[in-house]
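We emphasize that the prediction below concerns an isolated chain of 437 residues; any contacts that depend on oligomerization or on bound cofactors are therefore not represented. The input was used exactly as deposited, without trimming of termini.
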Amino acid sequence: MQRILYWARKDLRLHDNRCLEYASRTPAEILIVYTPSKEHLRSESFRQNFQNESVIEFQKNLQAKGLNLFIANEPAEKLIPKLIEQHHIDELIYQKEISSEEVDVESQLQNLKCKIKSIWQSSLILKQDLPFPFEKFPNGFTEFRKKVEYDLKIQNLVEARWANLKPIMTESQARLTTTENKNFVGGETAALDRLRHYFWDTDAIAEYKETRNGMLRFDDSSKFSLWLANGCLSPRKIYFEILRYEEERTQNDSTYWMFFELLWRDYFKFYAHKFGSKIFQYSGVGKPKKRHLLEDEELRRFEIWQQGQTGYPLVDACMRELSTTGWMSNRGRQNAASFLAKTLQVDWRWGAQHFEKYLLDHDVESNWGNWNYVAGVGTDPRDRVFNVVKQSYDYDPSGDYIRAWVPELSEFQGSSIIEPWNNLKKLEASGYPERIL
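Result of the prediction step, given as a C-alpha cell string:
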C-alpha cells in the first residue's frame, strides 16, 4: 500500500480539499503534518490564536474520519525529510503556495527521495483553468475579470474517499493553546456556520453591495476572508453557494458582487505569482520611487499612525479597532493605507507588515497586492489619494464608528466628530491628539 505524507498549511478543511481527494484516489496510508509558517510565528497573539483554533478543528475533523493530524513546531524544511525517511514515504503532497517565503520552503523540499505532488487549489479559478496562457496574464484587474468571465471555468467541489485512507501514527507532537474569542472563531465548522448565516439565516448576501462599505455592524460584510485566509473555507464552496442562493432565493447586483470580490482575490493571487518578490519592494512592480522623509521623521509618523493617534478620527478609529480585535473593514483598510502611504508619505511596506502582524484574515497576496494598489506601485496607472475627511462623511456620517473606537470624542456630535479641530476648546479638553499634519 502506498504511503503518503500530506503537508497541510493554509488548507485546513475537509470539504473541497484537493490534496486529500488526490491522496484518496487509491488505498493509501497517510501521515498528515502541520507546521506553522514564519508568517504565523511573527503575528500578534490573537491572530495566532485564530489559526491555532483552525488547526485544532482540522485535527478534530480528521479524527472523526479515522485519521490524525501531526502538529509540529519544527520548520517543515527540517522535519519533512526526517519523516519521509522514518516512515518510508512514497509521495509528498501539499497545496501549492504563491508568495516567495512559502515558495522558498517548497524549493528546499525538491530533492527528497520520494515523489512530490503540489496541488493548486487556493484560488477560485485554478491556474490550469485560466482562459489564457499564464505568461499572458493581464496586468489590470478589469482586463483579467473580462477575460475570465467570458470563458469561466470553475472546478466542481471534491470529496475525499475516506475509506481509502489509513493513518500512519506518530509518537509525539506539539500542543497548541487557544483562548476564547466570541466574535472570531477559527476552523472549518465556524466557517460553514458563517456561510449558512450570511446566506440562508439572514439573507445578508442579498444586500451585500449596499452594506459592504459599512464599518460597524458585523453583518455589513461577509467576513469570509477570515476563513479563506486559513484555508478553512474553499472559494469554490462560496461560489456554488452563490449559484444555489440565486436559484432558490434571488439573483441581484449583490450576489454578483460577492463573486466579483472572489475574482479580486484571485487576481491578487495570480498577480503575486506573476511578479514574485517584486510586490515586497519599495517601488513594487512599477518605476523606481524616491523617499521623501528623513528616517527619524518617517519613524515618528509611522508610530503615531500605528497607535491610532494621528488626530484624524477615521484613521485612528480604524487603527485602534485593528490593534484591539485583529479586524478592520475593507473601507477602513483603504483609508488607513492611503493615509500612511500618500498623506504621511511613510514607506508603505511598514504598513503592510503591520497589517500582516495583526489582521486575523491576513492573506499574503491580497494584503500586499492591495498595498501595492493603494501606494501606487502596482500595475494600476492611477495615483489614488483618499480624502479621509470626505470618506468619513460618506461612510460614517453620524460618527457612530468613530465614537465606538475613539472614546475621547464620544461627546462630539454631528460634523464635529469628523472634524473636531473646528472646535479647539472642546478638542483640547477631550485629550484627543492634535493632527499629525
